[in-house]
Write a structure and sequence with these properties.
Blueprint: H1 5-12, H2 22-32, E1 40-47, E2 59-63, E3 74-77, H3 81-89, E4 93-95, H4 99-106, E5 113-116, H5 121-124, H6 128-131, H7 149-158, E6 160-164, E7 170-177, H8 182-198, E8 209-216, E9 222-223
Helix pairs in contact: 3-7
Length: 230
């Protein structure tokens, strides 16, 4: 992929042979986030898992102490009093069947997260082909299939993020914005890494964390010292 002059100049500040400690990497990634918008800071974790095997899958969620810096629109599939409960908790949309045709026929996707009560999963299942590829399907492991819609909505609004392996066994997760302080980004990063290290499948043999790279939306990747993250 062709990179611009700005990217090339930023890359010169980094030593490609060095694996940086967390504090230094976060300082550098903030310094390199010089775009005219508030860049997202992301972590890319290459694991030793083989996601083709069910016992080596990783999927979960964690609430970042300082959120992601992004306002999250939440859709809740529920019925009866749970609809009112979801709206009272701050859900942007809550209801049932009425959302199905809007999503299926009109392509409506004006939401970032989806929560469903267990009794609504039969209905939500009809949207699997649309929501699944976009990572929006509710999932019990992520805490988004639950009767406690108040807790689910509150956590998502507070900065709860999901992590999962992609097809190349890499986890991609945002941990905040360039406008965050170094301390906020560090706390978010350590919270995420603690959760992922604990989520290591017992079936994985050898090195679990192969590489961890920190980057901003428009900046070059910064490799971290993996040995110090375990």
């Amino acid at each position: 992929m062709k990179r611009g002059k700005r990217y090339a100049e930023l890359s010169k500040k980094l030593d490609k042979t060095v694996q940086y400690d967390t504090d230094e990497a976060i300082k550098l990634v903030k310094e390199n986030a010089t775009a005219k918008f508030d860049e997202t800071i992301e972590v890319h974790i290459r694991t030793g898992c083989d996601g083709r095997h069910a016992d080596q899958q990783i999927r979960g969620a964690v609430v970042l102490p300082h959120g992601t810096g992004k306002s999250v629109k939440v859709l809740v599939f529920a019925k009866g009093t749970k609809v009112d409960e979801a709206l009272a908790a701050g859900a942007d949309y809550a209801g049932g069947d009425e959302f199905i045709p809007r999503i299926q026929k009109e392509g409506w996707l004006d939401f970032d997260k989806v929560v469903a009560t267990p009794d609504m999963m039969g209905i939500v299942g009809r949207l699997g082909r649309i929501l699944g590829p976009k990572g929006l399907m509710p999932n019990p492991k992520a805490g988004t299939v639950t009767m406690d819609v108040t807790k689910a909505v509150n956590e998502l609004k507070a900065g709860k993020i999901e992590y999962r392996l992609d097809k190349t066994n890499i986890i991609h997760v945002p941990i905040g914005k360039a406008s965050f302080t170094e301390e906020q980004l560090t706390e978010n990063f350590r919270t995420l890494m603690d959760a992922i290290v604990k989520a290591r499948p017992s079936a994985v043999k050898g090195q679990f964390l192969r590489s961890v790279v920190l980057t901003s939306t428009m900046g070059p990747g910064i490799k971290l010292n993996v040995a110090k993250l375990m």
